[in-house]
Amino acid sequence: MPEYHVTTAKIGEVLLPSNQGRACEERMPGPCAFVIFGASGDLARRKLIPALYRLGRNGMLSGNFFIIGASRSESDDASFRSMMEEAVKKYSTFDNAAWEAFSRRLFYRKLDDYGDNASLARIRDLLSEKEKEFGTEGNKIFYLATPPSAYERTIEGLTASGLSEETRGWSRVVIEKPYGRDLESALALNAFVLRNFREDQVYRIDHYLGKETVQNIMMFRFANAIFEPVWNRRYVDHVQITVAESNGVEKRAGYYEQAGILRDMFQNHILQLLALIAMEPPSVYESRLVGDERVKVLRALRHIQFDGVDGSLAMGQYVSGSVDGKVVPGYREEEGIPSGSNVPTFAAMKVFLDNWRWQGVPFYLRSGKRFPSRFSQITIQFKQVPHLMFRQTLGPEIAPNALIFKIQPDERVQLKFHTKNPGPRVCLRDVMLDFSYAQGYEGVMLEAYERVLLDCMLGDKMLFVSSEGMELSWSFITPILDLVEGRGVPGARAPDSYLYRAGTNGPVEADRFIMNDGRVWRNYG
Ligand code: BG6
After folding, report:
1. pTM of the shown model
2. Which atom of ligand 1 sits closest to the CA of residue 245?
């Protein structure tokens, strides 16, 4: 007779340690050189160098690896290292020995300008010297963390100087957002990039795809049999995606004035979240097939009608208010923002997907700066039970079930359902089945940039945006931008735009279209 063990699990408890039950894929990158253009900028200091440092500290970089920082700032190896040390201390946990080992692989060259021949020749010389020293076998990644206006010059320079030639190993280019500012400019940039690099060499970053909880959406949906049967228009009433931030525009006035919330958050991050929630299961978990399924969702997006913006779109901009008990300035009072700026810092929209699975199911998308707190959540709101058999006893309403993906900062998956309240009275209570993502896991958690940088070194493009994906998301957003920015079709009405107080959930008027549909925004705290 086999011996049976009785297992009792509390709600949310992980039954098997994370390394049991399933094999994990080992992912160790091979040799490569990493060249960062724009290395003295914000992105390199906040994200790239801390991410690379942590990968190194956790033994996830090849021993044959080095970094060259390049930008227009006056600096040398020593001062670059100490600037990056400060950055790592500020934006990461710090370990002296790990930093010592990492910083020996860090070098710097000043550029007279991006794309400048003589400057790039200096980078080339340094690259070939260090390639020999570190044994990187001619593999190299060029990361464009420059202002977007320097992308083309840099790319052209990479080709003209021979830096990107694949004489021995491979060469890849990573391009940050904004990838264009509308469909036309994005297509022009893409055509330019593809005249210099093959599509398989181009890595278009959307760091949201690198977030653990975002990747988990696919695992959750397709590694469990019980959710897919209800993941469709028969059972789902609607979906909400909220990416809320408590911070304001910070020191990025120049960029944000050009971008606004639609380019900054919707064209990329939010549409990618939508794609992961709505996609069909690919036949194999493989980069190309997964990417294709995400693209199909973007292709099914119904374009917002010019005469139908009412109820589909609401925009907002924050005015002074208080966040975390501190008084904060309004958008127009932020450093570098013109006092008459109409750039939106909030948007809410209702979109539909024209396909079999999702026909008629609204997806409510919302994002804004200066919310009371930072939270990103996706709620799958299921339909009411088909028949209210408790009507006589419990009243006419039973709140429907909901599945909530908490993307950040609290990383959870929750299922809301009803149980009987204990005791003699007949009453229901709402309860949450609650899974904390880190629970029962003691291994390394990768921050989004760590994950995408690692994947780039591995040549895995699953978490990057393809040419087609980029084009489709711009095709959807550009007509909306045209309306909002006053380039709309003659006679088309611009969407409503409202001011909202910092420290609130956006303009109250933006709730109107969801309330008109008999629904409310959810924030499962
Ligand atoms: C960036 C946007 O892409 O994402 C920022 O440009 C935004 O405006 C940021 O603050 C949010 O990223 P995260 O990872 O902090 O949610």
Report:
1. 0.93
2. 10
